[in-house]
Write a structure and sequence with these properties.
The complex is a heterodimer. By secondary structure, chain A is α+β, with helices and mostly antiparallel strands. Helices cover 25% and strands 32% of the residues of chain A. Chain B contains 2 helices and 11 strands, in the order βαβββββββββαβ. The longest helix of chain B is centred in the C-terminal third of the chain and has 14 residues. The N and C termini of chain B lie far apart (62 Å). Classes of the chains: A alpha+beta, B mainly beta.
């Protein structure tokens, strides 16, 4: 079991409340996944041309000032802003997506990159969801959409980097409830194409696969159709891209999902109980998505 | 109803266990309203007293499961396995239902005003399920006895490995499961559909417009030489 939840806001008046709305959803779903939790928050708060890199410290009390100085020196006069988030932080800079991940890894390979893009910020760690969100101050964060995960690990270790979301290309994030059975074969094929992996987690393989398909020109629904063809196993996937939110379930659809849509938002979660506190949800259209159908919502 | 006791329980104040314990202690004929269900699982399960229970909002898994007596009315959506193993009484869902609606129900009537998701009526053992809208895939899987009435469309593999339960579908059937077949309606079927549609309050379903699905009974006996595949 794992819990997944997502919220895309249609009404900009709600943007300031994104964290306030999403954290209780994940807190409720901690009963489905007490090991670890994570969230990808999407908000437009950097100038055009700049990106946010969500970085995870190797140890508490990490020397971020030293890291930023080293990055500025390596990047060559590109300004770097550091936004502290608990033990971790977000770097805001004009260093582009082609150069950024390798450049950052070169500064200190023990600092892990959990996501990057013009809108996305990724926070994840071991522990129950409410605690993890509290460490990063997620409740106070605004934004236009978020996806999150509460993990009960079944196939790989319980660590910060094995937590979801997996956000492996600009503004793309994935959370997964289920388990892929053929992910090692898919990973070998992707690795043969030069794709590198951060963990041995099955869900990361799906994230890398979708990222590769989209980099090759596929749109998100096309990439998810590819997932259905290539991956075997159980999955309910929730995927966010810069402007969209999508869900897909395998043909058996035994991993749950409920959708509630109102004029103000679309909310999805493993169980309705996670949606019960959303404003106006008692008037929402509530349904369970069909297997093998791709549902997408655009910001 | 004469002598009705009006009672209200709030899930914002009581745990599911407290609500169910309180329900169990009420005398027959009581009318109960459960407010702020907030998607809670296991509300109104295992009751044997004759209550009229209204759940005022969207609810979670196993609502009214194992009941043998009450009438339960949910003013919203329900999660997985509403009315699972229902013995008698009625369950009405005013919204949509998630998977496995009425799974293994032995008696009673479950009415879904919206759509039901996958595996509706799985392993049905004698109960009746009426769905106004569509059902998901594998509905009626291995259903042994009872009736499923579907006002809308059925997704793939309807009635797979069906035993003696009968399914009536008002809309389109995407595909039948193994050993399920279309049969002509007899007089008994017309009566059954008419009565069930009336009980459910479905004005859009009539016996003249439904397709009957029943077991071809080819899987009843294992044939070791079939297709010489073994």
């Amino acid at each position: 079991m794992c819990g997944i939840a997502g919220l895309q806001l249609k009404n900009p008046d709600l943007y300031a409340q994104l964290g306030t709305l999403v954290v209780p959803m994940l807190d409720v779903l901690a009963s489905r996944g007490p090991d670890s939790a994570g969230v990808a928050i999407y908000r437009r708060d950097v100038p055009p041309g700049e990106l946010k890199y969500s970085l995870c410290a190797p140890t508490p009390g990490y020397d971020w000032a030293g890291y930023v100085s080293a990055l500025e020196a390596a990047a060559g006069a590109v300004p770097v802003e550091f936004r502290a988030r608990g033990r971790d932080g977000v770097i805001v800079t004009a260093i582009g997506p082609d150069r950024g991940p390798d450049l950052l890894a070169g500064i200190d390979p023990s600092v892990r990159l959990f996501g990057y893009g013009s809108a996305i910020e990724v926070y994840k760690d071991v522990g129950p969801a409410a605690e993890v969100c509290d460490r990063y101050g997620v409740t106070g964060m605004g934004g236009y959409q978020a996806i999150g995960h509460t993990r009960m690990a079944t196939e790989s270790a319980v660590t910060t980097e094995h937590s979801h979301p997996f956000a492996v290309s600009p503004d793309l994030a994935l959370v997964h409830n289920g388990s892929f059975s053929n992910y090692a074969s898919v990973r070998r094929r992707l690795a043969a194409d030069g794709i590198r992996f951060d963990t041995d987690n099955d869900s990361e393989v799906a994230a890398r696969y979708i990222a590769r398909e989209m980099a090759a020109g596929a749109d998100l629904p096309d990439a998810l159709r590819g997932v259905m063809k290539v991956f075997d196993g159980f999955f309910t996937l929730l995927v966010a891209a810069g402007q969209s939110l999508a869900i897909v379930r395998d043909s058996f659809a035994c991993k749950p999902m409920v959708v509630a849509e109102t004029a103000d938002y679309v909310a999805v979660a493993s169980e309705y109980v996670a949606l019960a506190d959303l404003p106006g949800v008692d008037k929402a259209q509530v349904f369970e998505p069909m297997p093998q159908e791709i549902y997408t919502w655009q910001v | 109803m004469a002598g009705v006791t009006a009672v209200e329980f709030s899930c914002a104040e009581l745990s599911v266990r407290e609500v169910n314990t309180a329900l169990r202690g009420l005398p027959d004929g009581s009318a109960v309203r459960i407010i702020e269900p907030r998607g809670r699982h296991n509300l109104a399960v295992g009751l044997t007293n004759r209550l009229s229970i209204t759940i005022a909002g969207n609810a979670g898994y196993y609502i009214a499961g194992l009941c043998d007596g009450p009438d339960v009315d949910v003013e919203g959506f329900v999660g997985w396995s509403v009315g699972e193993n229902l013995m008698s009484g009625t369950v009405r869902v005013r919204g949509n239902a998630s998977e496995c609606a009425g799974a293994s129900a032995r008696g009673g009537l479950i009415v879904i005003d919206g759509d039901a998701s996958s595996r509706a009526g799985i392993s049905l053992k004698g109960g009746a399920i009426a769905i106004a809208g569509d059902v998901g895939h594998m509905s009626g899987f291995m259903a042994q006895a009872g009736t499923i009435l579907i006002g809308g469309d059925a997704a793939d593999s309807l009635g797979d490995s069906l035993y003696e339960a009968v399914i009536y579908v008002g809309g389109k059937i995407r595909s039948l499961g193994a050993d399920a077949q279309v049969e002509d309606l007899g007089e008994d079927d017309v009566v059954r559909v008419t009565e069930m549609a009336a009980s459910a309050g479905f004005s859009h379903v009539s016996a003249q417009d439904v397709t009957k699905i029943a077991s071809a009974r080819n899987l009843y006996n294992f044939d070791a030489l079939k297709d010489q595949k073994y």
